[in-house]
């Protein structure tokens, strides 16, 4: 069996135990399969586990949350059905703290605050629209943000979504602040990035382990991409 040339510990693999596999997902990789037929993160994870533990059959990998294809950063996968069930409940009820870093082309005004919108997903066009007032078809969506500072000629924002909606951070920053994420032409940025990613990274996740109940914090290094280089100065 050939070893899948996909991940290394400490860079892509942030944590693994009997119940969890925490991955620093590269931008451009689907979390779960879709109509494109492209190999998703979940399949790569199953291959990795099958090789590592010399499993004769398919390894169990449960997907409990997703980040968009052009977004990089933390994805938690379940290795057991017990962990998957409990993680599904935790993500559904927002029982964790999620922190994202985003680069924008202009500074937010004000420099920190809370955004609340009602988001409506257009599944045909795969875009989400944000409404500032309650909408009959919308889902209430909330996030906190703050400007960390300049990163080269861009602005580095820290974003903590309170809810977890499709394209939430992307559309709320673009609509609520007029600060579309660098490279995100779908939501108003002027040009794509060379690697067709967007400058949004799931930087940190704090949650309670679904089985041991231990509080855990995962931090994902930024991608090796030029647009993130100046942001590395903000590592603590």
UniProtKB/TrEMBL annotation:
<dbReference type="InterPro" id="IPR050188">
    <property type="entry name" value="RluA_PseudoU_synthase"/>
</dbReference>
<dbReference type="InterPro" id="IPR006224">
    <property type="entry name" value="PsdUridine_synth_RluA-like_CS"/>
</dbReference>
<comment type="similarity">
    <text>Belongs to the pseudouridine synthase RluA family.</text>
</comment>
<dbReference type="InterPro" id="IPR020103">
    <property type="entry name" value="PsdUridine_synth_cat_dom_sf"/>
</dbReference>
<dbReference type="Pfam" id="PF00849">
    <property type="entry name" value="PseudoU_synth_2"/>
</dbReference>
<feature type="domain" description="Pseudouridine synthase RsuA/RluA-like">
    <location>
        <begin position="19"/>
        <end position="174"/>
    </location>
</feature>
<protein>
    <submittedName>
        <fullName>RNA pseudouridine synthase</fullName>
    </submittedName>
</protein>
<dbReference type="InterPro" id="IPR006145">
    <property type="entry name" value="PsdUridine_synth_RsuA/RluA"/>
</dbReference>
<keyword id="KW-0413">Isomerase</keyword>
């Amino acid at each position: 069996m050939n070893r899948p040339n996909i991940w290394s510990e400490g860079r892509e693999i942030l944590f693994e135990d009997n119940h969890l596999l925490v991955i620093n997902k590269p931008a451009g990789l689907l979390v779960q399969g879709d109509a494109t037929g492209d190999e998703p993160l979940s399949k790569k994870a199953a291959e990795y586990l099958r090789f590592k533990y010399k499993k004769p059959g398919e390894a169990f990998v449960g997907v409990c949350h997703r980040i968009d294809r052009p977004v990089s950063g933390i994805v938690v996968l379940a290795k057991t059905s017990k962990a998957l069930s409990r993680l599904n409940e935790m993500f559904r009820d927002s029982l964790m703290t999620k922190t994202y870093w985003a680069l924008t082309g202009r500074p937010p005004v004000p420099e920190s605050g809370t955004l609340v919108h009602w988001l409506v997903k257009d599944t045909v066009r795969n875009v989400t629209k944000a409404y500032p007032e309650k909408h009959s078809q919308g889902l209430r969506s909330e996030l906190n943000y703050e400007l960390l500072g300049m990163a080269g000629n861009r602005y580095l924002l820290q974003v903590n979504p309170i809810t977890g909606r499709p394209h939430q951070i992307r559309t709320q920053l673009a609509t609520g602040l007029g600060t579309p994420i660098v490279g995100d032409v779908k939501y108003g940025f002027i040009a794509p990035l060379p690697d067709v990613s967007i400058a949004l990274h799931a930087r940190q996740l704090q949650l309670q382990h679904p089985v041991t109940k231990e509080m855990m914090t995962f931090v994902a290094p930024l991608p090796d991409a030029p647009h993130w280089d100046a942001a590395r100065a903000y590592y603590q």
